[in-house]
Design a protein that fits this description.
- By secondary structure, the chain is an alpha/beta fold.
- The chain is built from eight helices and nine strands.
- The strands form two sheets. Strands 1, 2, 3, 4, 7, 8 and 9 form a seven-stranded parallel sheet that branches. A two-stranded parallel ribbon has the order 5-6.
């Protein structure tokens, strides 16, 4: 590299370097998990209806909690978005983009330890690759919803292509024995037409009040601190996290401990249309 001829050249060089670094940081965030949108003329693998019944009944596994759970709050049965009415210091835990190997398992272990339930919004291609893990989440008593098949931005698609993507994302969950009655838009990018379509089908769209921003490459402690800071400001709400990231699994125990110390309660969302889980 040639030496700088002037202070102006030096400043321009460092300004360009900083701009590139910022752009790379943003691209490495939530956009990093975006999968290519599936073209309408390239349908994914078809799951036969008979496969829906092949999974058999699910049995809830009750976790062992020493000393009881101070963090567990009420169970709220919802049939529409309007039913999600949270009181002061009530939160809902949600995890997008899984299931993912040991990371989802680690999160399940932490949730069991604190005696709380969450809602997992699963990407179809991830669920298709790990049907046993989908069932494991359900057996632990957590709610499951869909997050499309390939995580595209539905707001940039035609209505018909977006609906096809939503339907394809549901199929692997149904094959695992789950009726996905919750849904979250990837990137929270929605349209009113799609929200109306989901509502007509009895599917509850979960928005997000508190974004943990765990998709940024920061330390687990920074994720927990940012989430708690936003939670204190709002006082309640639906927390968006991702079981896609190792930092989320790592920071979750600290986050829940902080919420417990400050008197928050975790509300478990349930849908009456969710597949009924058989008891032993």
């Amino acid at each position: 590299m040639k030496p700088f001829q002037s202070g102006v050249e030096r400043r321009r060089f460092f300004q360009n370097t900083i701009s590139c670094a910022v752009a790379l940081l943003l691209l490495s965030g939530c956009a990093a998990i975006q999968r290519p949108a599936v073209q309408a003329e390239q349908p994914g693998p078809q799951i036969e209806p008979a496969a829906f019944a092949s999974a058999g009944p699910l049995v809830i596994e009750a976790p062992v909690i020493s000393g009881g759970s101070k963090l567990a709050g009420r169970t709220l049965t919802v049939q529409s978005i309007g039913d999600i009415q949270l009181g002061d210091k009530e939160v809902v835990l949600t995890f997008d983009d899984g299931p993912v190997g040991g990371r989802t398992d680690s999160i399940l272990t932490t949730l069991d330890r604190f005696g709380v339930k969450a809602t997992f919004l699963m990407v179809g291609q991830m669920a298709s690759a790990r049907p046993a893990q989908v069932r494991k989440v359900a057996k632990r008593g957590h709610s499951i919803g869909s997050h499309t098949m390939n995580h595209p931005n539905l707001a940039r698609m035609s209505f018909d292509r977006a609906v096809a993507e939503i339907r394809r994302g549901e199929a692997p969950l149904r094959a695992a024995g789950i009726n996905p009655t919750f849904f979250r838009f990837p990137y929270l990018a929605d349209t009113q037409a799609l929200r109306n379509y989901l509502s007509r089908r009895g599917i509850v769209v979960l928005d997000a009040d508190i974004d943990s921003k765990d998709y940024f490459k920061v330390s687990p402690a920074a994720v927990a601190a940012r989430t708690m800071r936003t939670l204190r400001q709002r006082g309640k709400g639906i927390i968006l996290m991702h079981d896609l990231h190792a930092r989320t699994a790592t920071m979750l125990p600290d986050l829940l401990r902080q919420m417990e110390r400050e008197g928050y309660k975790v509300v478990h969302l349930q849908s009456p249309q969710q597949l009924q889980v058989a008891s032993r």
